[in-house]
TrEMBL record, chain A:
The chain crosses the membrane at residues 25-45, 57-77, 83-104. It is a multi-pass membrane protein. It comes from the Bacteria. The keyword Mitochondrion does not apply. Keywords: Cell membrane, Membrane, Transmembrane, Transmembrane helix. It holds the Pfam family LrgA. InterPro entries: LrgA/CidA. This is CidA/LrgA family protein.
Automatic annotation (TrEMBL), chain B:
This is LrgB family protein. It is found in: Membrane. The chain crosses the membrane at residues 15-33, 45-67, 73-93, 102-128, 160-184, 191-209, 215-241. Keywords: Membrane, Transmembrane, Transmembrane helix. Its main location: membrane. The keyword tRNA processing does not apply. It comes from the Bacteria.
């Protein structure tokens, strides 16, 4: 577990360093994720400790974003005045996306097989 | 009310502003919210993150703690989102074998689906007169929360609004996803999981795993791919527009 967590943190550090060094427009942790993915492909397997650490963290995700989500109740008046536009675009956008994706992928899978 | 609950003794202030208190409060509220969610048979609007956030917002208001203060005291939880993002490489690696099986449909749906998810929300909000900061915060709505927050911070969006937008998207996906897919007669588990994963990320992945492991694997794959694809594309598009 500690070993797995260290590997994750190592790749995050690597990602952050690459980001600040190259000024690439990508979040450090995302660069870390892509590098770890590449490393796993090269190595051809996932170590048990890494598997455990990642499963624990992913399982905790709903808890981890509570502090950020709480901010939703303390938005500035300037953002709150746009609540209708925000709500409609999120809900309608999601429904439209689901329909679009499902129809597109259904057609593509049919062509593929 | 807040005067009643916050006597001005020094030890009391030290206590309620401490990380110990903020984290205890978050963990206890979260467990109660999770109980409520399970008791309600996973009713989407009672998603534990939302209920927990609402209860905490109310409690810190009553105790006279500012949001900034709470966020800083509980920062270790937010900090762990970093390694959690890196950890997504593992499900991505484990489900990558499915990409080879169905390469063209997955790649094309990913590119168009992830773009459509961001553009539809931004377009609708733009048409309804939302500000630039709001538009930027909404562009990450279909990414998994840790990546969405990272990207939003990078492009100048509002982190709390971005996190909230992800949650609203997740709840919408939970409420309507299965209904829409049934209405469109999608019975293929691979399409079912992948489409939910592209649009409604983490919560959709949990839902897809409840259907079966194949749908779950495709939802998880979609979550990781959408996160990586959009994390690369959104900042580039935004920097070109600026």
């Amino acid at each position: 577990m500690i070993k797995g967590l260290s590997i994750l943190l190592f790749f995050q550090c690597l990602g952050e360093l690459i980001r600040s060094y190259t000024q690439v427009a990508l979040p450090g942790p995302v660069i870390g994720m892509l590098l770890l993915f590449a490393a796993l492909c090269l190595r051809g397997g996932v170590a048990k400790s890494l598997q455990n650490a990642s499963q624990s963290l992913i399982g905790l995700m709903t808890l981890l974003f509570v502090p950020a989500t709480t901010g939703l109740f303390f938005l500035s008046a300037q953002i709150m005045s746009q609540w209708l536009a925000i709500a409609v675009s999120l809900v309608a956008g999601t429904v439209l996306s689901l329909i679009f994706n499902a129809l597109l992928m259904k057609r593509l899978v049919k062509m593929h097989e | 009310m807040s005067d009643l609950l916050s006597p001005s003794s020094a030890w009391y202030n030290d206590f309620i502003y401490s990380p110990l208190f903020a984290i205890s409060l978050t963990l206890i509220c979260f467990q109660l919210s999770q109980q409520l969610y399970l008791r309600s048979q996973r009713f989407a609007l009672l998603h534990p993150t939302i209920v927990c956030a609402a209860v905490i917002a109310l409690l810190i208001k009553l105790l006279g703690i500012s949001y900034q203060q709470y966020f800083e005291s509980s920062y270790i939880l937010t900090l762990l989102l970093g390694p959690t993002t890196v950890a997504l490489a593992i499900p991505l690696y484990q489900n990558a074998k499915y990409i080879r099986q169905l390469f063209a449909p997955i790649a094309i749906t990913l590119v168009f689906g992830a773009s459509f998810a961001a553009l539809s929300a931004v377009g609708l909000a733009y048409a309804m007169g939302a500000s630039n900061e709001t538009l930027l915060s909404l562009s990450t709505k279909s990414l998994t929360t840790p990546i969405a927050m990272n990207v939003s911070e990078l492009i100048g969006g509002h982190t709390a609004l971005a996190a909230g937008g992800v949650m609203v998207t997740a709840v919408t996906g939970l409420c309507f996803g299965p209904l829409i897919l049934r209405w469109l007669r999608i019975h293929d588990d691979r399409i079912w999981g992948f489409c939910l994963g592209i649009t409604a990320h983490g919560t959709a992945t949990v839902l897809a795993f409840e259907r079966n492991s194949k749908a779950g694997a495709f939802a998880s794959l979609a979550l990781c791919l959408t996160g990586s694809f959009s994390a690369i594309v959104i900042p580039i598009v935004v920097s070109c527009l600026k």
